[in-house]
Amino acid sequence: MNEKQGASPSRRDFLKVSAGALAASAMSGVVVPRVHAAENGTIKLAIVGAGSRGTGALADAFSTTGGPVQLYAMADIFDHRIQSSLKNLEASKDKIDVTPERRFVGFDAYRKAIDCLGPGDVVLLTTAAAFRPTHFEYAVSKGVNVFMEKSFAVDAPGVRRMLKSAEESEKKSMKVAAGFMWRHSTARQEVIKRIHDGAIGDLHTLRIYRVHGPTYCPAKPADQSETVFQLQHPFNFQWLCGSFLVDWHCHNIDVACWTKGAWPVSAQAFGGRTYQEAGNLFDHYAVEYTFADGAKLFAFARHMNNCWQTYSDYATGTKGAAVLMETLAEPKPRIYNHARMEKQDLAWEYPQPDCNPYQAEWQVLLDAIRQNKPHNESRRAAEADLAALMGRMAAHTGQFITWDKAMNSQFQFVKDIDSFSFDSSPPIKAGPDGIYPAPQPGITEEC
């Protein structure tokens, strides 16, 4: 991902400043009662999508304790990503055994990588979100445990497909981790538990912010196909990433809904694009979500230079207010006896640095496999994805969107994503000036 000045803190930046961590059935529908580690304790990993996001997730898996893990197979549509990933993981070469025969390239490579795994192993699904339903469905059909990065679908049909696979994975007692690492932040767990216990009274307002610099999309080289170009820059195209509201701000949306203990029932929103170099994405959103009891969630997202920046989450109730996250690097959650959240009103604060949630989510997953404990985050992941999609639909179309309307939407960016290839045409193309058209509220249809 290429970014200009003012871009958001990266995953690697976060890891530098955060505290340290804490034979499957090939027959679809057959219950697999044992999906634990092999007798020698080694959990083999296969990665599908070897970009920076997936490589970072591998590094987190390698940091865990409790038994050995080994990278055993890799898959990507681009060979150079596999080579780059291996180079970046050189420091962990003792945990890597990926022979050339187990490095798969192409749109069907995910099947070959997953087929290399056995009971108790884990496939990492870390491609662009457009392909996540396809890959998750296949992993579930093979009974292979899953770690999948957010986001999880780019449209409602994809969400429904994820939910169907989630149900099957539950029937098979599979272990599935979703990339909402903040659910494994001990600091957030503690402040949200206190809110659920009534520390700020009845929760009526949530505010979440992700406002920082823009994500830059370079000009397409004249000799490169539109399809290859977009696949190499997935975070600039809605059909691949779902929008930055869905792919990035979904973390904050998930935490807010976790704090509320519910999903929103409706959304209305505003948004637009200021920088044409953002691919075909909106670069700012303001979404008002409403819960069944009338409580509100206000989601603010902006990717612009030279503007006020923050990355933070807040909750307000009838008896006080809470900081859920002060910054990306250190959440520093606090509870106040007043909505103004001033020093003299401080009632509680988390007493220590947070754990590294990127590593903690892996520790929980691998412990569940080794100890054969229930652990499946797939259903919640798909529902959180839909909550984010509601906000995008509302902003892009200019319409009032209910949960049911979003869930039942028939809109798809690509009708048959399973058959997509380099010979396929992407659903969006640049104009004669090289600019990609952005959504137009009142005209665009996404639901």
Topology (SSEs and partners):
Elements: H1 11-17, E1 43-48, H2 52-62, E2 69-76, H3 79-88, E3 103-105, H4 109-114, E4 122-125, H5 132-142, E5 145-148, H6 156-171, E6 176-178, H7 186-196, E7 203-212, H8 226-232, H9 238-241, H10 244-247, H11 250-260, E8 266-272, E9 284-290, E10 296-303, E11 310-317, E12 321-325, E13 334-336, E14 346-349, H12 357-371, H13 378-397, E15 401-402, H14 403-407
Parallel strand pairs: 1-2, 1-4, 2-3, 4-5, 5-6, 7-10
Antiparallel strand pairs: 7-11, 8-9, 8-15, 9-10, 11-12, 12-13, 13-14
What do these coordinates show?
- This protein is an alpha/beta fold.
- The protein folds into two domains: 11-182 and 360-376, Rossmann fold, CATH 3.40.50.720; 186-355 and 387-412, Dihydrodipicolinate Reductase, domain 2.
- 31% of the residues lie in helices and 18% in strands.
- The protein is built from 14 helices and 15 strands.
- It has helices at residues 11-17, 52-62, 79-88, 109-114, 132-142, 156-171, 186-196, 226-232, 238-241, 244-247, 250-260, 357-371, 378-397, 403-407, and strands at residues 43-48, 69-76, 103-105, 122-125, 145-148, 176-178, 203-212, 266-272, 284-290, 296-303, 310-317, 321-325, 334-336, 346-349, 401-402.
- The strands form two sheets. Strands 14-13-12-11-7-10-9-8-15 form a nine-stranded mixed sheet. The chain has a six-stranded parallel sheet with strand order 3-2-1-4-5-6, sandwiched between helices.
- Helix 2 (52-62) links the parallel strand 1 and strand 2.
- Helix 5 (132-142) runs parallel beside helix 6 (156-171) and helix 11 (250-260) packs across helix 13 (378-397).
- It is globular and about 60 Å long.
- The two termini are 29 Å apart.
- Mean pLDDT is 92; it is low at 1-34.
